[in-house]
Amino acid sequence: VQLVExxxxxxxxxxxxxxxxxxxxxTFKINDMGWYRQAPGKQRELxxxxxxxxGSTNYADSVKGRFTISRDKAKNTxxxxxxxxxxxxxxxxxxxxxxxGRFPRYDYWGQGTQVTVSS
Length: 119
Fold this sequence. Notes:
This protein is mostly beta strands. It has strands at 2-6, 10-12, 17-24, 30-38, 45-50, 57-59, 67-72, 77-82, 91-99, 106-109, 113-118. The strands form two sheets. Strands 2, 4, 5, 6, 9, 10 and 11 form a seven-stranded mixed beta sheet that branches. Strands 1-3-8-7 form a four-stranded antiparallel beta sheet, with no helix packed on it. The radius of gyration is 14 Å and the shape is elongated. The model has no long low-confidence stretch (mean pLDDT 96).
């Protein structure tokens, strides 16, 4: 499984962005997916996650009500819609996918896309 993020940019506070994560390879093995972020000097943290069928989502308290995670299985793509961006949202955003179920469990990561929010 290969993951490629896109959509990061330099924006002003209050702006919106949509990140995309395109999966390729053995995508049929993917179960849950998620977005993580890591700011300089901080640990990587979970931003949002979504189950295989998209029926259940989970968000960090800091982004609830502002960010929306979704996935289009037909396109093998996951999205993160980010509204009302704040300077504290500045980070490198990573796409994550895990395989499992009847397949061995592995974790896969993209290379990251930079989001910078200016005040």
